[in-house]
Write a structure and sequence with these properties.
With 220 residues, the chain is an alpha/beta fold. It is built from four helices and nine strands. The strands form two sheets. Strands 3, 4, 5, 6, 7, 8 and 9 form a seven-stranded mixed sheet that branches. Strands 1-2 form a two-stranded antiparallel ribbon.
Length: 220
């Protein structure tokens, strides 16, 4: 090995060590992503992100209203918002092994343990994400369930665009953005008009993945 090769190997080794201990990105322009829920002691804070050992997140998508293509795009888009590959997901064919399940149609009646994150979208479609949290607010029972409801004919004017936007928005909830942004120009606003994550969405996602989760994942 030449001297140049030795120095290159040492540099790569130091780079690898640095990547294992990446500091949280400094971001100021972001919004609250955590949920604050009543508890026996007053209030609990619920925060969640997928740990590295659970990546890639396994996503099953119903083959309806262009959902597979829209969710594939949502995965690619949200993955690209992270600086250090903190998030990744893959579409799987077996729903019984999925961490996230995406279906077409309205959500069913909620169970007591379900925290439903509604989105007030356009008249052509709507969305919701169900997060099953234990009564003590410590466990997240998988899978997370996303519902995208095209309320009219799937190929009617404006419906494909609305379904794509809804898919992108609801998938943001499955990453751990459990609240809506108060700013209309953000994708994670409750009634968004933009189809891609904003800089504030990106900042929020990056920061939440460097804050400890309060939820422990429990598989079905």
């Amino acid at each position: 090995m030449t001297a140049r090769q030795r120095w290159a190997a040492i540099a790569l080794a130091f780079l690898g060590l640095a990547c294992d201990d990446i500091a949280a990105p400094l971001r100021s322009d972001l919004y609250e992503w955590r949920l604050f829920v009543p508890s026996a002691t007053g209030s609990d804070t619920i925060s969640f992100h997928w740990p590295q050992e659970r990546l890639p997140v396994r996503v099953w998508v119903e083959d309806a209203i262009e959902l597979p293509a829209d969710i594939s795009q949502a995965i690619s888009t949200w993955r690209g918002e992270f600086l250090y590959h903190e998030y990744d997901a893959v579409i799987v064919t077996d729903s019984t092994r999925a961490d996230v399940i995406v279906r077409s149609g309205p959500p069913p009646g909620p169970k007591l343990s379900i925290m439903r994150l509604h989105s007030a979208l356009a008249p052509q479609c709507s969305g919701a994400t169900d997060v099953d949290v234990s009564d003590d607010h410590r466990d997240l029972r998988l899978p997370i369930r996303i519902y995208v409801d095209a309320k009219s004919i799937p190929d009617a004017p404006g419906v494909p665009e609305c379904v794509a936007l809804t898919s992108m928005h609801e998938f943001g909830h499955s990453l751990g953005i459990f609240r809506h942004s108060p700013t209309p120009t953000d994708l994670m606003y409750g009634d968004p008009t933009v189809s891609q994550p904003s800089e504030r969405d990106r900042n929020t996602a990056e920061v939440l993945y460097h804050v400890p989760s309060t939820l422990h994942i429990v598989d079905r």
